Amino acid sequence: MSHDKVVKVALIGNPNTGKTSLFNQLTGLKQKVGNYPGITVDKKQGKCKISENLTAEITDLPGTYSINPTSLDETIVIDTLLDEENELYPDLIIVVAEVENLKRNLLLFSQIKDLKIPTILVINMVDQMERKGINIDIKQLEEKLNTKVVLISARKNTGIDQLKSIISDYQKLDTTPVVNISEKIDKDYFTKLKSAFKEFPLYKSWLLITQNKEYEFLNDDQKQLVLKFREDVNCIKRYQHKETIFRYQVIHEILKETYKVDKSQATDLRSKLDKILTHKIFGYIIFAAIMLLIFQAIFEWASLPMDLIDGVFANLSEFVKNNMAPGAFTNLIAEGIIPGIGGVVIFIPQIAILFLFISILEETGYMSRVVFLMDKIMRRFGMSGKSIIPLISGTACAIPAIMASRNISSWKERLITILVVPFTTCSARLPVYAILIALIIPAKRVWGIFNLQGLTLMALYLLGFTAAIMSAILLNNVLKIKNKSLFVIEMPNYKLPSLKNIFYEVVEKTKAFIFGAGKIILALSIVLWFLASNGSSNYTNAEKIVTSTKENQNLSEQALQKKIVAFKLENSYIGVMGKTIEPVIKPLGYDWKIGIALISSFAAREVFVGALATIYSVGSDEDTGTIKQRMAAEVNSETGEKRFNLATGMSLLMFYAFAMQCIGTLAIVKRETKSWKWPILQLVGMGILAYISAYITFIIFK
């Protein structure tokens, strides 16, 4: 039996060229997300069947404008292409270009081609050629670039079969460079360079000395030669500048013969839309309206599936209790595992809707307009227009959002962005907000259009964003770091969103939420169940102690059982822990049960709901229905009122709006800043702010 041959393919291209769309077309759902070796940046890989006995293992590398990196994301590209011992080193490179910006895209292509790795040029969005009045002489372009050129539309699945056919014969591709840099820059200098590094292509040698980094794959002699060439810093900078100019001159001559644009045939709506969407007044109104629509949809569209899911898990828990043999194992499943899983699954509809809208905004090209729109505002607060990307990404998760700050060149702006991103309302806060809003805010309509619960949710998102901005102002004045930056952003064309891309994005992000949060919640649910189902001698002798008390001797059987259950829970291990911390949290309107959920959620915020679901399941002597019903039925033993009243609910919302409750985020901040100073500052500062805000809110609404 013959095994499939595997070819390692790297997808490279400028941002907004449709590289991810092509990756999705080639790999479908055969994708996995990991980290680059030693780096926390996400690495997307997938497999594609090319022919009967050839499979491509495709890596989607971060978007970059040039092979000379200015950010950490771009550094990954050059590191992957220089180190042949790297597990990701490609057998074949596919450079994705966009049909309207071919000149700029070919700068990157010409650099990569000089590394003498088999390379294919893919020109995407050809479905727009006729509408834009563009005509390309492919045959002549292939001759000029010494490679195969494929016209595709990743959105419409056009040209993919032709691309696969060329991949199957990748070893026949011409690896001749497009540009001979030594001839135009300094022939003697590059002759010396070639002689010093005979084992490498000339351009690889040039890149090794232009990067301020020590490469481990070099031997000691090579490292010494690199350091010697690097001594003349001014010479290197001057030659880099000359190289860029020369490359653009060559590209210009090539495109003058092969690329024609007849603007009289073009029908462009882009400029008209930009005037409206980036308007200094209407742009902000439109953005606010879109955000309002999203928050309305999160409650309106998700309410029915959430109620169904909640009911299913409540019935499942009851079914297990009624149909399995009584004992610890049955209790574990019915009171620990099922409520814990239910605490995650119930929020899938809301999480999916949030990711759906974010994906649509990115796919259409609108998100780049938001970045442009917000740049002037962000600069007043010590951040860059690029900071808005991490802040908006933070609505999904703070961890990738913090990593997204790597494209900010100024260290001060990047540090401020990293420190304030956790204030933005992430998807982990959404389950807490959703359940508390549903408990304390009536499902009424305002002006007959807006859902009051949706408006409350939007207010919380705005509160988080405002807290981020105010913190940025404070940090900008406090941090004594020199700041120099340049804001450059590409405005991509508007396009209809690809349903396939949106589907993959929603599935991948929702899966990450379920399995990431689910593991933590399930593990903690089991631990919490054990702690709530076991205790000291008082717990073991609960029935004897309660029945021997005079005040309980005249109670009915049902009332007596309730007393026994409550006594057991208070004297369980978790009850003792809760009672210990209760004096600290009581001023906020919380009891020891909420305190346990609060502490548990420091691992991950979304654990709060699952923890309460587990505690209330164990603490109930009868079936009280869904998670929401169990929380609504909880009574304050001192006042006889509902535990989750307006004051307590609002206090909890304020606490979760500001508290840093995510171990993963703290770990990423430490790794990105290379210091424990900043994550500790975040944890303590946000914790104090959360406590004070929750206390003031409770007093106001009490």
What topology emerges from the helices and strands here?
Layout: E1 5-13, H1 19-27, E2 31-35, E3 42-51, E4 54-60, H2 72-82, E5 92-98, H3 102-113, E6 119-124, H4 129-132, E7 134-136, H5 138-145, E8 148-151, H6 160-168, H7 181-184, H8 187-196, H9 202-210, H10 220-230, H11 233-258, E9 259-261, H12 270-277, H13 282-300, H14 303-323, H15 328-345, H16 348-364, H17 366-380, H18 388-393, H19 398-403, H20 411-420, H21 429-440, E10 445-446, E11 450-451, H22 452-478, H23 499-533, H24 537-540, H25 542-548, H26 557-570, H27 573-585, H28 592-600, H29 607-618, H30 627-633, H31 646-658, H32 663-673, H33 677-701
Parallel strand pairs: 1-4, 1-5, 5-6, 6-8
Antiparallel strand pairs: 2-3, 3-4, 7-9, 10-11
Helix pairs in contact: 3-11, 5-11, 13-16, 13-22, 14-15, 15-23, 15-29, 16-23, 20-22, 21-22, 21-31, 23-29, 25-26, 27-28, 28-29, 31-33, 32-33
